[in-house]
Known about the structure:
This protein is mostly helical and 188 residues long. The protein has helices at residues 10-28, 35-59, 62-87, 94-115, 120-140, 146-174. α2 packs antiparallel against α3 (62-87).
Amino acid sequence: MSNTKLGNPAVVGLAGFGLTTLLLQFHNLGLIGLGPVVAMGFIFGGLAQMIAGFLEHKMGNNFGFAAFTSYGAFWIGLGIIWILNHSEIYTSSHTDVGYYLVGWTLLTFIFWIGSLFIHTAMAITFSTLLLGFIFLDFAHFGYPKMTIIAAYVLVTCALAAWYMMASIIINDVAGKQILKSGKPWVKL
């Protein structure tokens, strides 16, 4: 057995998830164009999260493995949809994207249940992610103003993910718990 300390891949996964989610919400609020979102969607939200997920698998963390690889695939898939639309190779309608989001809402619901057993910071992140997806679903099926509400909820989600990232990094370098993650919302 080796006593070599391994890095926690969640820091990169949470950083990529948080930044890409934040940038998309800046876009949804009309603050930036889609270019930075697409770039980060492929690289940080997509590729970096997938790598973090594969490393979570190696660490034996099924939740991290499934979540990071899934949302990495989400960002890569969304980036491909945007590029195909922009290039007019295969155009996805607003409703098509809505169904894409509904599928991700359903998957997020499963992750949300799992998050309730981990700790408060994880439960808040997945609660706001699930709520944000639900608002985006409504936005794509007849209630476009829900995009703004979703954006604010998902900014909270991004910041919650960054809080978890910060707690892992700061607590590790400090050698003690400075930022707390809280208790699980559900204990069996």
